[in-house]
Amino acid sequence: MKRQTTLKDVAKAAGVHVSTASRALDPKNRHLITPEAVQRILDVSQQLGYRHNAAAAALRTARSRMIGVVVPDIANPIFPPIIRGIEDSLAQIGYLAIIGNTDNDPVREKSLALKLQERGVDGFILASVELQDDTVAKLAEDGIPIVTVNRRSSNENVSSVVHDDDEGIRRVLTHLASLGHRRIANIAGPQRLSTGADRYAAFERHRKALGLAEEVDLVTFAKGYTESEGERCVEELLVRRQDFSAIVCANDRLAIGAIESLARRGIKCPQGHFDYRLQRYADGRSPETAPDDDPDRTIQHRVPSRRAVDEDDRQRRG
Amino acid sequence: MKRQTTLKDVAKAAGVHVSTASRALDPKNRHLITPEAVQRILDVSQQLGYRHNAAAAALRTARSRMIGVVVPDIANPIFPPIIRGIEDSLAQIGYLAIIGNTDNDPVREKSLALKLQERGVDGFILASVELQDDTVAKLAEDGIPIVTVNRRSSNENVSSVVHDDDEGIRRVLTHLASLGHRRIANIAGPQRLSTGADRYAAFERHRKALGLAEEVDLVTFAKGYTESEGERCVEELLVRRQDFSAIVCANDRLAIGAIESLARRGIKCPQGHFDYRLQRYADGRSPETAPDDDPDRTIQHRVPSRRAVDEDDRQRRG
DNA sequence: CTGAAAGCGCTAACAT
DNA sequence: ATGTTAGCGCTTTCAG
């Protein structure tokens, strides 16, 4: 690996000072240099195969143009499309996403955040947060920009982009009610996660609003979003009672586990889930998907930006 | 964001020189320093919340401890587990993976590789390569370490980790032959990709070896690994002839497209694919999976390491 | 519009 | 065993 061409090499070859070369190569500062010089420098840098040294720039400017993206597990299929979107958006503005996995372990999340900070990331996008999250607290304290995705933090100073869980659960319950279901069980998610808490709260709210049966033992709580927890929760519900006709699961993995478990007991759900799968496969779409508006609805919780806050401060002081 | 604690701060607080602090903090050089000094420096750095500045170290050492990982599309479900494995393995040795997507576009691959080089990655793992790949050629020329995964490059100097496609196809054909199939069609993958070329070659080889029908028009080539190409290829096969009883598809997405297309025409495959799916689902495993050894077999094509090559050179010259 | 100069934080000869 | 020294390649005041 031969020595890299540096700015100095380019400058010398173009007969200018390094600082001039630096400015010419930076679109933001190009206007400071005469067009002819810019052209010459561009040509020379092309010719010599000059490549910007990001580490040097990062050291000098204290900005890396990298964003840390922290997810529980990239192999969980809900994340790759999210990550892809993040990467593509960041790439457009010259930023790079650095992905890390936590396996939902707060200890790993913390050490990962530290590693990424050492790498100099300019900010974090966190998909792994719990409502009360030490790492978020620490990072926020450091003043490093954070946005959470998919899950909220309870920290009021952290922005987030999440689904409209209340509306989603409302639609699910409304749909089930319209099919005639009156006793609807709920396999709720972990309550330390915003998705668990929000969907459970929405379930209670809309169950009431729709005048459905409100027995406490129709609700059970999963300890994690896993298929095996879905199975366990179904068993638990069935031990308690047998008179519900539908189950709302807090997420897909719980639902998969629930369906497996029901199938093993010979309980068809819904209307025999194999028929359901068959029809879905043949049609290319679910027979139960109501034609509805805005299926991808998300909510953005925005916190005033740092700059805005600083200006507020300044005005207050001024 | 308050100013970071630097090595200098730690050194001053511990009453030693920066270089001493640097050595004490580096496990590899710790032994050079007296245990008491190490302890003191460790304590102080902890106390001050010192964080290693990776950009500065990278600039100084010209090694970033980052590896560029280039895949066609992280949202394609075959890649996340591969990436996860790469990330975990790299993390163990203090390295970081940086993921990039190419969408199978050689132009994007090239510009991505450049960006990652500017970021100073120490090497590349490429899952996106074609047999003849400009980017691989350029990178190899630069002398930057490369390994390809999932696909081979035709470049003899590049190591790769790939499936044993020949053995895989052999098992598929042997299995189909044992079920009585004699006219077996093949939806082959793109021949510019090693997976396409290798699986097609294996198909021809083992079809011959097993004494199966060898008509040319039983083979059709997909232009890409997509479901729609799978559909198109089935249509093409059916236009040509109707007397084959099985199809070997070069990958899963082609197979999905093929099955869709067959289903639309009312052709059951295999023995009615819905039955197949149903049974698979109920059992938790495919009824056609023969109990076989080593299901995850991969092949590693190793190229002598740079060091080894250098030593060879030296010996030859010496 | 361009040049000079300083220094980001770290590591690694080299010297003691 | 520790300190001295010299940059890595870049950006950015400050001068001219």
Structure description:
The structure is a homodimer of 318-residue chains. Chain A is α/β, with parallel strands linked by helices and 318 residues long. Chain A has 13 helices and nine strands. Chain A has helices at residues 7-14, 18-25, 35-48, 54-61, 79-92, 106-118, 134-142, 165-178, 194-209, 227-240, 252-264, 273-283, 306-317, and strands spanning 66-71, 96-101, 123-126, 146-149, 159-163, 184-188, 219-221, 246-249, 298-301. In chain A, the strands form two sheets. In chain A, strands 2-1-3-4-5-9 form a six-stranded mixed beta sheet, sandwiched between helices. In chain A, α9 (194-209) links the parallel β6 and β7 (219-221). In chain A, 33% of the residues are buried. Chain A binds chain B through residues 1-2, 51-56, 58-59, 64, 73-75, 77, 79-81, 83-84, 87-88, 96-101, 114-115, 117-120, 142-144, 263, 274, 277-278, 281-282, and chain B through 1-2, 51-56, 58-59, 64, 73-75, 77, 79-81, 83-84, 87-88, 96-101, 114-115, 117-120, 142-144, 263, 274, 277-278, 281-282. The structure holds a DNA duplex (16 and 16 nucleotides).
